[in-house]
Structure formats: C-alpha cells, structure tokens
C-alpha cells in the first residue's frame, strides 16, 4: 500500500505538538479526533504518549486520519506561492513598522526621563 503523503504540514503538527501535545492538539490537526480526545483526557498519556508522538513527527512517521504520512514540512499550497503566503508577509511588515515606531517612542521617553533638568523640581524665585 503506497499512499501519497498527507497534505497536512509536519511543521504545523510539530509546532502544535510541542506546547499543546499533552492535550492532543496535533492529533486534532491531523484529523485523529478519537485519539486526540484520549490524549486530552490522559494528559498525553502522562507525557509518554506525547513524547512518542514528538519522535514520530520529527522522524516523519506520524500519520493522519487516512493513514498517510505527515512528512511535508510546508503547509499544503504554500510551495507553489514561493513558500510564504503573501498575506503573512504583509502582516509581518505591518508588525515590523509598529515595533519600530514603539521602539522610537521608548527611546524618546528614556531620553526625556534621563534629562537632569527635568528631574529637579522648579525653584521659587521671589
């Protein structure tokens, strides 16, 4: 039986498995709802089942609900578009602009607070 690889992403499965694997998130992603619920109820088989799944995903042997290997790192459909979806690139650029703007504001505020003339209270001159 030579099935084609799953359209599910191995990278997404691993990214879900590492922080949320004890809750079965990667199994829900792969369409394995039943075993996902079992992992959710048993906290990833007290960590052992979770560790086993991490090893399966890293080695490329993890399978989806149709028993196809989840072996491709890139999500289905992004390879034809150059690897990264355009919406993601645009959102990343907007985030960079916001972080740069916030960084400039923090620098300005630090300079204002560091100015010794602004630290001393004004003196009364009668």
Topology at a glance:
Layout: H1 10-20, H2 25-29, H3 33-46, H4 48-59, H5 86-114, H6 116-119
Describe the fold and architecture.
This protein is an all-alpha fold and 126 residues long. The chain folds into 2 domains: 10-78, no CATH class; 84-116. The chain is built from 6 helices and no strands. The radius of gyration is 25 Å and the shape is elongated.
Question: What's the overall geometry?
Answer: elongated
Query: H/E element string?
Result: HHHHHH
Instruction: Specify the structural class.
Output: mainly alpha
Q: What percent of residues adopt helix (DSSP H or I)?
A: 55-70%
Low-confidence stretches: none
- Give Rg in angstroms: 25 Å
Helices, by number, come to 6
Tell me the fraction of residues in β-strands, as a range. Answer: under 5%
- Spatial gap, N to C terminus: 97 Å
Number of strands: 0
Largest sheet: none
Domain count, please report it: 2
Provide the residue-averaged pLDDT.
85
Write a brief structural summary.
The protein has helices at residues 10-20, 25-29, 33-46, 48-59, 86-114, 116-119. Helix 1 (10-20) runs antiparallel to helix 4 (48-59) and helix 3 (33-46) packs across helix 4 (48-59).
């Amino acid at each position: 039986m030579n099935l084609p690889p799953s359209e599910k992403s191995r990278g997404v499965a691993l990214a879900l498995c590492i922080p949320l694997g004890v809750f079965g998130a990667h199994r829900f992603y792969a369409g394995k709802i039943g075993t996902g619920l079992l992992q959710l109820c048993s906290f990833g088989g007290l960590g052992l089942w979770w560790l086993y799944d991490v090893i399966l995903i890293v080695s490329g042997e993890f399978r989806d609900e149709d028993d196809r290997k989840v072996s491709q790192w890139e999500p289905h459909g992004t390879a034809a578009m150059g690897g990264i979806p355009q919406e993601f690139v645009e959102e990343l650029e907007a985030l960079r602009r916001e972080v740069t703007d916030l960084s400039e504001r923090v620098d300005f505020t630090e300079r204002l607070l560091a100015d010794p003339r602004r630290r001393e209270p004004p003196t009364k001159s009668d």
